[in-house]
Design a protein that fits this description.
7-stranded mixed beta sheet; 8-stranded mixed beta sheet; alpha/beta
Amino acid sequence: MTALTLSTAAAPGLRADAIVIGVAKGADGPSVAPGAEAVDKAYDGRLAGVLETLGASGAEGEVTKLPAPAGFKAPVVVAVGLGAEPEKDAGFDPEALRRAAGAAARALAGAKKAAFALPIAEAADAGVVAEGVLLGAYSFDAYKESAKDGKDTKGARSKGNGKAPLAEAALLGGKPRDKAFKAAVERAAAVAEELNRARDLVNTPPNDLNPEAFAAVAQAAAKEHGIKVQVLDEKALVKGGYGGILGVGAGSASGPRLVKLSYTSSKAKKSLAFVGKGITYDSGGISLKPAGHNETMKCDMAGAAAVFAAVVAAARLGLEVNVTGWLALAENMPSGSATRPGDVLRMYSGKTVEVLNTDAEGRLVLADALWAASQEKPDAIIDVATLTGAMMLALGSRTYGIMANDDAFRAAVHEAAEESGEPAWPMPLPEHLRKGMDSPTADIANMGERMGGGLVAGLFLREFVGEGITWAHLDIAGPAFNEGGPFGYTPKGGTGTAVRTLVRVAEQVALGDLG
């Protein structure tokens, strides 16, 4: 991962491959953002005009490269757009800084060192710029021949299209001896590294990441970071009566797993449970997905990846809250042993579910994991899942939906998401939609009304949350996997969506700020 340093050095004398500066979109054209005063001075105060001549406007994510002025040890200046110029005495939006840093880091693939002279007035600014750099420099090329250097690169995060990611980033304006600045950068590094680990998992092909392999990754990380881990294999799942997870995994040659990760703090006063959907490949089962809808279904374990990363990040940060992660892992495949539409499964909770569509499998594995999490009586449960196409239709490809059985908790999770830079939107759980899941054969069906399908899925999950437990459901089907081009600090492919939200919620609970 890109190495980070805080530096008080002046931009002209710093040895680097590039100096990164911010450019805002002003009413009369681009304007040079704070942090780049020394660079602007070297252009005799005409840098904004030069950039405008080159076609720069300061629009968010825009990257313009130009030769550095005489006397600079760095040969190139990289101007990155920050978007609209803030009002007088107001700072730049943290997400704008994060995205700008990410866009610049991605543009500097192959460089050994870059100095970031972006607006860094406070420790929090250093944190978001650091996070943007680390997330923007990400690349997954483990399976590309061009990435090999004589070693096994499987699982590496480097060498995109033959170019290594930016090796080192110096944050100018940072204060290396200031505890707050150092803590902000260290937090950014821990969260970004775990988020990138989640991206790796989402991007790994399903022939190399089945439930057993995913569980092994979790076990290795747990050992490294002092997290207690328990893995239930097929025999244990059968013995425990986990009918939902077993039913979904019944058609695959790769058996399902339920992984429990437990991080505990001796100073914790509250506990959280995170539950992740981990369908390592989703063919739809007997209700087979058509061509054009199954090519990216390796990403259907993104919820479990996010939960895994968040628990490890909480451990690395030493948060004073107990966090348990539940990874419900299965592969949904058609075969002679697969669950059929019309079958009835007896869930871990004892309830029976009539399976009307085997492609509505995520809610089945989550139901068992939610009930298992409920038995420990946590203060709150949050589940994360690439659950429904309906949520993508409702909110698009960059925003996830939040449902909950408590309006105040839903609002708090939404606020945590926005603070973290993850676009999300609160969604309702309309009671009238519950009737559509009534079954003449079982306690409930796994399908209901077609319209409002994302909300129906949320109502189904609510049935498996223990009584009196505060719960939220994050449907990340849209933003979990970016099928378009990269933007800001977001790469093509796995994005690591929800990791930062979960970590932020855990931080707030540890501080007593989330009720």
